[in-house]
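Design a sequence for this backbone.
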């Protein structure tokens, strides 16, 4: 749109200022606060485990299908590519032949066994829904169509705690064509970014005593600084031979000895582990009775490292601990991990900067950069998303100092006190999305940051050719439109 194409009265008469759009988004979040709180409470009160979130799925799809929501209706797709995933879309018309800019908000809603929503995924679902409603309301408030179309998508992504639902959705094509993705996670602090890291799953099996066959990749389990497990990492099973422990112990092959030896091997390894590495686990099955040489034992371990490179080194060392225990005791060993590998979250400093600017306007106090750099790291399946599309995964305080994955955090996640902080975070997400849509050149900066960080991560950093396509997408540019908005 050129200046001469504007209606008489100039830009001020044609388009509201960007800050006015942000205010409209915040007002919409407040307007829907009661129904958003009810949505969160419904999910919180009926916790469901990974891939079993049927009630949460139905609650979310009913929410976006409801005729009570303000504005035009959402197009809702239940059971989108996974039984407990969903998709809701709404958009503005794009000029003929132009591709709309596609932004997505992600919602998680799986719980933990035994303690329910001790990681606050009900609040993640609420924040994603609230941010989407806010952005939609802001775009609907425009007095005339924008010269760039915008599609707002809400993706319900199950199984973050175990299994990697986002990875399944990536493989199914759910993230194809998206330009930027947003979500936020409850924590004990506010941070635009925390260094979530890689997690790698595997299966290793020993087909006979002393001989090993590699049938997959060694399972690595990592998690974020709130120290909450994503999935069951590595399961190690030792197979021996039962015998009477008093009468004929020499006839047995002691699987418990193998498990204890493996555990102790890892304990000795800790002296040579880097300060940022973590190995921890439990013996889940140690035998049947004291007078029977255990023929079967099972261990479960989580491994953590800050980078894929470190992860590979740690993996080899841990493998050797498990293998040597089998060799020393004469047992067979089977080591299995999950199907999906969790990647580290790629930071996008452009999105982080804009999110912090918006958050500070709302009164959010962010932790220092030193705290971020010195904090422990882990993983989330959102990391895989950041390898295919630029995104941001901030953390937010919910009014409690309780730690994630505790009964106290479950209580905090379901409290009324958490509502203020959750909705404030949703506002900041919506405001950041508006910046991406309307600030001149910002989308290209986000894309370039994504491309450079990904190349560096993959060890392929090369000089950038001028005007080279980023490969992320070719959404129409709204720069001229927003320059008119910001000129007021």
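Sequence:
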């Amino acid at each position: 749109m050129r200046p001469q194409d504007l209606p008489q009265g100039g830009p001020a008469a044609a388009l509201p200022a960007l800050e006015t759009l942000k205010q409209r988004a915040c007002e919409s979040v407040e307007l829907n606060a009661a129904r958003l709180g009810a949505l969160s409470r419904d999910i919180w009160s009926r916790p469901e485990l990974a891939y079993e979130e049927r009630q949460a799925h139905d609650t979310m799809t009913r929410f976006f299908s409801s005729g009570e929501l303000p504005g035009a209706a959402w197009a809702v797709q239940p059971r989108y590519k996974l039984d407990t995933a969903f998709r809701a879309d709404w958009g503005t018309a794009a000029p003929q032949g132009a591709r709309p800019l596609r932004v997505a908000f992600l919602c998680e809603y799986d719980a933990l066994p035994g303690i329910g929503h001790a990681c606050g995924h009900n609040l993640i679902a609420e924040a994603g829904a609230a941010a989407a409603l806010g952005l939609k309301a802001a775009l609907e408030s425009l007095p005339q169509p924008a010269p760039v179309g915008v599609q707002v998508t809400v993706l319900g992504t199950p199984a973050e705690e175990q299994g990697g639902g986002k990875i399944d959705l990536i493989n199914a094509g759910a993230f194809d064509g998206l330009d930027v993705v947003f979500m936020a996670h409850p924590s004990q602090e506010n941070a635009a970014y925390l260094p979530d890291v890689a997690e790698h799953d595997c299966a290793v099996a020993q087909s006979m005593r002393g001989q090993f066959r590699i049938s997959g990749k060694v399972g690595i389990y990592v998690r974020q600084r709130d120290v909450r497990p994503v999935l069951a990492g590595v399961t190690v099973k030792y197979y021996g031979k039962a015998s009477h422990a008093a009468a004929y112990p020499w006839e047995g092959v002691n699987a418990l000895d193998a498990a204890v030896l493996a555990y102790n091997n890892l304990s000795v390894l800790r002296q040579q582990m880097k300060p940022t590495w973590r190995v921890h686990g439990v013996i889940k099955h140690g035998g049947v009775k004291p007078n029977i040489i255990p023929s079967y034992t099972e261990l479960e371990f989580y491994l953590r490292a800050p980078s894929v490179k470190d992860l590979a080194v740690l993996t080899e060392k841990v493998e050797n601990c498990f293998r040597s225990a089998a060799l020393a005791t004469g047992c067979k060993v089977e080591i299995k991990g999950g199907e999906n590998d969790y990647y580290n979250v790629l930071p996008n400093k452009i999105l982080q900067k804009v999110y912090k600017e918006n958050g500070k306007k709302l009164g959010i106090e962010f932790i220092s950069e030193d705290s971020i750099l010195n904090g422990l790291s882990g993983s989330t399946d959102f990391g895989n998303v950041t390898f295919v599309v630029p995104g941001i995964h901030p953390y937010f305080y919910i009014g409690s100092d309780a730690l994630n994955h505790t009964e106290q955090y479950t209580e905090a996640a379901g409290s009324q006190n958490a509502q203020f902080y959750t909705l404030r975070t949703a506002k900041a997400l919506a405001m950041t999305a508006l910046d991406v849509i309307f600030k001149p050149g910002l989308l290209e900066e986000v894309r370039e940051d994504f491309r450079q960080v990904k190349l560096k991560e993959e060890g392929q950093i090369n000089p950038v050719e001028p005007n080279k396509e980023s490969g992320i997408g070719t959404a129409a540019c709204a720069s001229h439109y927003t320059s008119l908005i910001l000129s007021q």
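Residues 1-15, 200-232, 460-488 have pLDDT under 50 and may be disordered.
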